[in-house]
Amino acid sequence: MIIQCPECQARYRIKTNDRPLAAAKVTCPKCGVRFAIANGADEARSRAAIPNILVVDDARFFRELISDLLADRQAHILMAESARQAWEALQRNKVDLLIVDVNLPDLNGFNLIEKIRADGKLREIKILCISGVHRKEIDKLKAIEAGADDFTSKSFNPDEFNARIDSLLNDKLS
Fold first, then answer.
1. How does pLDDT run across 48-82, given as a tens digit for each residue?
2. CB of 83 within 8 A of CB of 111?
C-alpha cells in the first residue's frame, strides 16, 4: 500500500501482507508530521471526518508535547516552527484548528492570527493561542482582539488543554 504525507507530500510503501489494514497513525520520517491512514472504502469517509490540527511553535519541545497530548485523538497533526511555515501549510491544507504560540521568530502569533482572519478562505479556522508561562494578562486580551477563539499559557493542565481542543473542534465540526 502507498501512503502519502499530507504535509510534505512524501510517498511511502508499507506492507499490508494482503490483509486489510485497520486505521492507524503514522509519523512521516521526512517531516515528522503525524497523520492517520485508513484502508479501502473507509478512507474517504475517515479523511472527511478527521480534523486537521496545525501546531505552530518555534520550540520543538512544545510542538512535540502538544502532538503527544493530541496523539490519542482522531486528527491529522501538522507542525510548523514559524509563521511563514504555518502560512504555507495553511495554503496547502484544510486546517480545522490552529494552535499558535504568541512568540514566533519571523512574525508574532498576533499578526499571524490577524492575517488569517483577513483571508476569506481561512477566517473560519478555530484558533487557540498559547503563550509562555510568565506572560501578562494583556497577551490574552491581544490574542482575543487579534481574532483567537481561545487562549492558554504553556503551563496548562493536560486535561484542561484537551477540553479546550474538544470545545473548539466541536464548535468547528458541528
1. 478 999 999 999 999 999 999 998 888 899 999 99
2. yes
Alpha-carbon distance of 45 to 49, in angstroms, equals 6
Please name the residues in contact with 135: beta carbons below 8 A apart, sequence gap of 6 or more: 102, 153
Judge contact between 128 and 57, C-beta under 8 A: no
Beta-strand ranges (E) seen in the chain are 2-4, 11-13, 24-27, 34-37, 52-56, 76-80, 97-101, 126-131, 150-153
Q: 103-110 — which CB contacts under 8 Å span 24+ positions? A: 103/58, 103/131, 103/132, 104/56, 104/57, 104/58, 105/58, 105/81, 106/82, 107/82, 107/83, 108/83, 109/56, 109/83, 109/143, 109/146, 110/142, 110/143, 110/146
97-145 residue pLDDT tens? 999 999 898 999 999 999 999 999 999 999 999 988 656 778 889 999 9
Domains and CATH numbers, the chain: 1-49 (2.20.28), 51-173 (3.40.50.2300)
